[in-house]
Amino acid sequence: MFAVENGLQGDPRLQAISDAIRVIPHFPKTGIMFQDITTLLLDPVAFKHVVDIFVDRYKHMNISLVAGVEARGFIFGPPIALAIGAKFIPLRKPGKLPGKVISEEYELEYGNDRLEMSMEAVKSQERALVIDDLVATGGTLSASINLLERAGAEVVECACVVGLPKFKGQCKLKGKPLYVLVEPSQLEEITF
Amino acid sequence: MSGNKEEEDPRINGIKTKIRVVPDFPKKGIMFQDITTVLLDPKAFKDTIDLFVERYRDKNISVVAGIEARGFLFGPPIALAIGAKFVPLRKPKKLPGETIFEEYELEYGNDRLEMHVGAVEVGERTLIVDDLIATGGTLCAAINLLERVGAEVVECACVIELPELQGKQRLKGKPLCMLVEYR
To answer: What's the pTM?
Structure first.
């Protein structure tokens, strides 16, 4: 579900957010129009809009845990967690977290990768939000949902700044709702 | 905050007690300072950010640069609260578009820190944030990157300092603000 489908149609903040995201063609490889959120972070007003919109949505949903996917989820997750009084849990690449961890494999285009979470971070039945900058295939978010559910948490929603248009409507990831602020700009390269 | 004991803010002890020390991680002999347990305590995490924000809000800082990846946990909340830009300093090949890099030494071999060209303008007053300062190698590389583009590094801010590694001496004369020492 996109923000415009859920009460934010015409909200000028969404246009400001979309305008602040830079598109880099053919990164990390040919054919991919990379949605670069670092330019959004260079615009303190637009960055704050992102956090404000998510905080307004989640502050009354009794969320006690925000999980952010390494590394760009670390940029958006903590400000939301701090504002709603929730804990923040980093979901990390293998070998980065000390202590006991659980891990979940997920598919890449070629091969697999793994996401890890501290086993002691989650209490049973906590209501959790998962955050990342962008959702494309949904593979990373699905792995995140799996990790949190294995630890006994209830994933309330996954939230991303940018999402492919296929996530409009009541689209769900592993049965969990997805909330996205903006679509990618210039999804297809314009050629003349 | 890196000063006298008798001036120590009461919030600091609360933060210190939340830091988990994990022995022999990532390898034998290292007492790893795990800040993820601070993030699990909303009050301790908020206090950490508040302490830095109180220090920097009136210092005309327009850029907060955070070192990947744990600097990304603390830098953005500080940047948002003081109205500054956030600039991620990243491992090689993560940033798209035009970048500059600075090499620094590891125990065995080298690594690189990258920054976007054009993210920081000449003369911008900058804060560099990371979770911890050990030898100071990474922070020194960060200072170099920012100075190369003409920024003014005002201070480096870390939650934890390992004073025995003397990282403070490697900051090209820039001051360090830290909350908790681990000896």
So the answer is: 0.96
